[in-house]
């Protein structure tokens, strides 16, 4: 692994460097494993995170452009694997699964997110028609897809499980996962109680907060909006969706 001294950081646009610094300065506070950090520990880890981001983007200049949330992805790798190995795994993750999201603009990101309504149209007409009625665009799940829900969750063990699944699956799997979460029984039932676009978008955007890692943490509450969803149920549903409508079929919608 190249050291920071051997990488030309000037290849990273100044505007991106400023955004990276701002994002890093706000990072490593919400994860369960970082909440106990003192200021010195947090500053040290932020410095490592900043260097990982700059080195990856410098080495992949031209094919990777920073997006807000990429620091969340690299944070997971840093906290899981340490700075050196974490940099390697984050770079491989980016090159294999995130390259389209790391393009200079959001054209490919928007196209990929627009696959989601196609999943609903093929697998759940009621959800599809409801979201179409209120003109709800799939941007409610953009952070789920581009950060592997690291932006949305605090439980680091849960984030780790999601990364295990996403990293070992097809690049479209986060989209199947998003669809499965929206279509999950209690979440789906509550969806139809929303009365306009803003309310529906807000409801969907916050669905990941109901995910839990183990069934022992599962608490079914009287209020459906407060119900929790076992992560493995969502993963299995996502796999079933991928069998019902293949990645090749979804790819055809991008053409």
UniProtKB/TrEMBL annotation:
Which SUPFAM superfamilies does the record associate with it? Ypt/Rab-GAP domain of gyp1p (SSF47923)
Every Rab-GAP TBC domain range: 1-170
Q: Which domain of life is it from?
A: Eukaryota
Note whether DNA-binding occurs among the keywords: no
Pfam families per UniProt: RabGAP-TBC
- Set out the biological process GO terms recorded for this chain's protein: endoplasmic reticulum to Golgi vesicle-mediated transport
A GO molecular function for this record?
GTPase activator activity
Q: Which UniProt keywords apply?
A: GTPase activation
Keyword Acetylation belongs to the record: no
Instruction: Spell out the InterPro entries in the cross-references.
Output: Rab-GAP-TBC_dom, Rab-GAP_TBC_sf, TBC20/Gyp8-like
Gene Ontology cellular-component terms listed: endoplasmic reticulum membrane
Name of protein: Rab-GAP TBC domain-containing protein
